[in-house]
């Protein structure tokens, strides 16, 4: 059994990591789906009210509420798969929930990139409602996510990926992690200028 959790600010590459996991036959539990479903159940707009509902769930049911709702989904997939990836951990409290349940079988991966790089990616994917249309800007999203305790979660990561190089390089690092469990050092080719580094905390 191996549960891999990803943490990172918007646009860092968590969704791409989840795509790579799926391509390698590893099921993905997306914590944001819990929030999106709750948002829809409350008759709100998931593209605009996601953050508000995420905060409401934590206020109403405790800071580990979303992680706790995700646990049965993870355990269900572990019945048929050796490895599961959990996309979108946002706080140290959520890390505690997964470490308590899965112990040494849990690996936390922090995916990181500069603000400007993430902003370009968020704009390019065109999935989010813009500020002009009532959506939440990236700086505000960063502030909200940090308010959940994301900085604490990122500091506790077992593996850190600096996702500033090509998409192909990033995919290869993720493939290594989901296949082998962890990566202990950067695999930069001598003479290259790759900035997609992997290191163990």
Succession of helices and strands = EHEHHHEHEHHHEHE
Query: What's the β-strand tally?
Result: 6
Whole-angstrom Rg: 16 Å
- Count of DSSP-assigned helices: 9
Largest β-sheet summary: 6 strands, mixed
Estimated share of beta-strand residues: 15-25%
Rough outline: globular
The share of residues in helices is 40-55%
Question: Could you report the average pLDDT, rounded to the nearest whole number?
Answer: 86
Instruction: Note the gap between the termini.
Output: 21 Å
Unreliable segments of 5+ consecutive residues: 182-196
Biggest β-sheet: strands ordered side by side in the sheet:
2-3-1-4-5-6
Structure, explained:
The protein is an alpha/beta fold and 201 residues long. 52% of the residues lie in helices and 15% in strands. The longest helix has 16 residues.
Short description:
With 201 residues, the protein is an alpha/beta fold.
Note the main attributes of this structure.
201 residues; alpha/beta; six-stranded mixed β-sheet; 52% helix
């Amino acid at each position: 059994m191996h549960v891999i959790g990803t943490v990172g600010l918007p646009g860092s590459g968590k969704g791409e990591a989840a795509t790579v996991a799926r391509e390698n036959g590893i099921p993905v539990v997306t914590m944001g789906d819990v929030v999106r479903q709750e948002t829809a159940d409350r008759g709100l707009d998931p593209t605009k009210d996601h953050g508000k509902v995420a905060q409401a769930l934590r206020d109403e049911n405790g800071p580990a509420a979303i992680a706790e709702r995700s646990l049965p989904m993870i355990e269900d997939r572990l019945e048929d798969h050796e490895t599961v990836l959990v996309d979108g951990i946002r706080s140290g409290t959520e890390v505690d929930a997964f470490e308590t349940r899965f112990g040494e079988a849990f690996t936390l991966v922090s995916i990181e990139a500069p603000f400007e790089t993430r902003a370009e990616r968020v704009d390019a994917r065109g999935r989010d409602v813009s500020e002009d249309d009532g959506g939440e800007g990236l700086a505000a999203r960063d502030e909200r996510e940090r308010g959940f305790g994301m900085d604490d979660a990122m500091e506790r990561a077992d593996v850190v990926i600096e996702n500033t190089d090509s998409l192909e390089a990033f995919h290869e690092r993720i493939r290594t992690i989901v296949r082998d469990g962890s990566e202990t050092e950067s695999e930069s080719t001598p003479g290259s200028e790759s900035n997609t580094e992997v290191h163990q905390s």
